[in-house]
Design goal:
Elements (H helix, E strand, L loop, with lengths): L2 H5 L9 H15 L8 H22 L1 H11 L12 H18 L3 H36 L3 H24 L6
Length: 175
């Protein structure tokens, strides 16, 4: 599914949230299942369209989901070979050690890990937003280049790594 098509908006890393909301509400009004309660075929289609509308809206309102979607639409799956540099991975291993100490009950390690994670997550988000703006501006004339998409993939993989570390620090187990 291309969530941008659901709303008839141009694909981009950054989008007009007011326009997205307007299109979402228009789709909700058009396909609300209560309008088709007496027609089982149309009611089924309305349920499908409503679910599609909700899923597309959820994907596009979250920056990281939108980045993931843009990467996928351009042939850069999130599970593409890890592109994280060795020095970044070493930094994450050191942070993982601090998190391990924190989860064993060390309050100062918890505070240190929390501070480092917050700083790294903020830096990552700012880098994504900056690259997104540059990429979208250039896309109008050049399209999304491999250089831009690979840079965004790197930032997205860093985000995923940081999210896993955050969950580890807070004892959230992934299924």
């Amino acid at each position: 599914m291309n969530p941008f098509e659901v709303f008839g908006i141009a694909p981009g890393f950054l989008i007009d949230n007011a326009l997205l909301r307007k299109q979402f509400l228009a789709n909700q009004r058009r396909w609300h299942p209560d309008f088709f309660i007496n027609d089982p075929v149309q009611h089924g289609e309305a349920l499908r369209q409503t679910a599609l509308n909700n899923e597309a809206y959820t994907l596009l309102t979250d920056l990281y989901s939108r980045v993931k979607t843009m990467l996928m639409l351009h042939g850069y799956p999130e599970n593409k070979a890890n592109v994280l540099p060795a020095d970044y991975l070493m930094q994450m291993m050191e942070l993982s050690d601090i998190i391990e100490e924190a989860t064993a009950g060390d309050k100062s390690a918890f505070d240190e890990a929390t501070g480092q994670l917050e700083a790294l997550q903020s830096e990552n988000e700012q880098a994504i937003l900056q690259l997104a703006q540059q990429a979208d501006e250039k896309a109008a004339t050049e399209g999304y280049t491999d250089e831009v998409m690979n840079s965004m993939l790197l930032l997205y993989q860093q985000h995923r790594y940081l999210s896993r570390l955050h969950k580890n620090l807070h004892g959230v187990k992934e299924l």
